[in-house]
Write a structure and sequence with these properties.
By secondary structure, the protein is an alpha/beta fold. It has a single domain, classed as Spore Coat Polysaccharide Biosynthesis Protein SpsA, Chain A, CATH 3.90.550. It contains 8 helices and 9 strands. Strand 1, helix 1 and strand 2 form a beta-alpha-beta unit. The longest helix is centred in the middle third of the chain and has 18 residues. The protein is globular.
Length: 224
Amino acid sequence: MQDLTLIIPAKYESESLPIFLNELSNLDCKKLIVLEESDKDTINSIKHFKDINILHQLKNGYGAALIEGVENCTTHYFCIINADGSMNPDYLKDMLKITNNKNLDFLFASRYEKPGGGSDDDDMITLIGNYIFTKIGNLFFSLNISDILYTFVLGKTSSFKNLKLKSSDFTLCVEFPIKAKRNGYSLGTTPSYERNRIGGKKKVNAFKDGLLILLKMINMFFKK
């Protein structure tokens, strides 16, 4: 797994990130933590870790963290995996194997693909919202994926960089697969079970971010 970099966006994760990094310690891959320079509590909580790199993001937002993280990635593959511990690193070896064997550009983990998919962190609002946005993505953009808002994604670094993504907020979740499909990149999915987050609260505001995501999809549909 030496050709893989884990892109780990972290925002106010001083409770979760040290525990999660301990879980990742036996993985022979690069780990890039992406966070805001002002987030001193999280930075101080991981000072004793030696096998990580820290990137202070230039723009605020979840999307910006992912874009800047992959832009600073030098390995052939990257994988987005959140600092809260909800995305299980036990899937990484199989995800890398599937991506290699099928020569995929991007492999999207899915909480709703059976058998094996599921979530301990989903609630009724996010479940319904994800269902609706995934249906829109598949119907209007021919994505053929089952979990459009889940950013547990492994892929080719060069392919991601070529997309020139712009969204600095959570709307990157839909800009990413839509642009990948439009640019002719190969997409795959694999079941994944989402764990309870280690600590802290969800960073997503279901109604506000849901509206922004809907508007982003409408904009991308009419602006081809």
